Amino acid sequence: MKLLVTGGAGFIGSNFIYYWLKNHPDDDIVNLDNLTYAGNLENLRSIQNNPHYRFIKGDICNVDDVTAAMHAVDVVVHFAAESHVDRSILSPSIFVMSNVVGTQTLLDAALKQKVKRFHHISTDEVYGTLRLDTREKFSENSPYNPRSPYSATKAASDHLVRAYHITYGLPVTITNCSNNFGPFQFPEKLIPLAITNLLEGKSVPMYGRGDQVRDWLYVEDHCRAIDVVINKGEVGETYCVGGQHEELNNLDVVKKIIGLLGKKESKIKYVKDRPGHDVRYAMDWTKIHMKLGWKPKYDFDKWLEKTVEWFQSNQEWWKRVRSGEYQEYYQTLYAGR
Ligand code: NAD
Ligand code: TYD
């Protein structure tokens, strides 16, 4: 089987490529990525000479790039996107281009190629926000209510994917997952930002009171969920994917990281809240569990510790990533807070 993975040089995409080659060693993977600030071929260095893997530098918004990458493809696994909420607040246009126009360009090419499956990676953020004082969770039946430019463009892409199934019969599946963490995550997101700032002796910016709740999912559990959906999922269906742990707010998470690194809680710096900040996300993953037998197997505390260890042992990786464009972004985002 030949897979086209888009955005394979990013955080989840690169973890997915490793996962897939290990678990399906006879399959071929083409990775189409235009290497934005978040795309990093260093993530894939150890498989760059694997005969089952090929990288194409190209933009999912570019018809020629996408047509070339789609050659003889059976399954598309679509990760490529602008993925960071704070950046979407600073500059929404690129989110509309990559997340909406890019997805539609890929869908057209997948239709022409008559792929057996187009699997789209989406997010719990399309469902909006939950209240802190409830045990309510998002499920496949929750209404769409995106509240940031990022989640609005992901919602639009989900609608396009479903529309291509209903209108043209493209065999699609969608997973909407919660916040991932693990190796190779770009240090603009909370967990890697906190770890790397603390390792450099810097403070950790905490938005508002730090009482917002996210549903943390170890990246390999996510990759396994995608595998199960591609292999056993029903065409046209959506599956919600989340982690399994007691609800933790951002302050709890950062305090755990501080504990693991032996730092002081005075390193937490409360800063002005993110505009339109979603208060709480929680995923009900009953459907993927009951229908396809998936459940998360990685415990948050143990895998947070492993993630902290990974960042401790891969300082060259994140120090390179945190130079250049990152510095400018960090100054712009955090300076006024
Ligand atoms: P990331 O930002 O780490 O990586 C995105 C990758 O896509 C990068 O390699 C980038 O170069 C590539 N890319 C961006 N625009 C492109 C374009 N126009 N053409 C080709 N390549 C392009 O993102 P991630 O955290 O790995 O997220 C992957 C997917 O999972 C995204 O669709 C995101 O919305 C979704 N998701 C992520 C999370 C999370 O916690 N990280 C949670 C839910 C859903
Ligand atoms: P983030 O990792 O950006 O993911 P998302 O916004 O997609 O959930 O943020 C996770 C949570 O951490 C979110 O509630 C915002 C908060 N946060 C901070 O408090 N400080 C920070 O510097 C960052 C990046 C995030």
Automatic annotation (TrEMBL):
Needed co-factor(s): NAD(+)
Limits of the NAD(P)-binding domain: 4-306
InterPro entries: dTDP_Gluc_deHydtase, NAD(P)-bd_dom, NAD(P)-bd_dom_sf
Keyword set, alphabetical order: Lyase, NAD
EC number annotated for this UniProt entry: 4.2.1.46
Catalytic activity: dTDP-alpha-D-glucose = dTDP-4-dehydro-6-deoxy-alpha-D-glucose + H2O
GO MF entry, a single one: dTDP-glucose 4,6-dehydratase activity
GO annotation terms (biological process): nucleotide-sugar metabolic process
This protein's name: dTDP-glucose 4,6-dehydratase
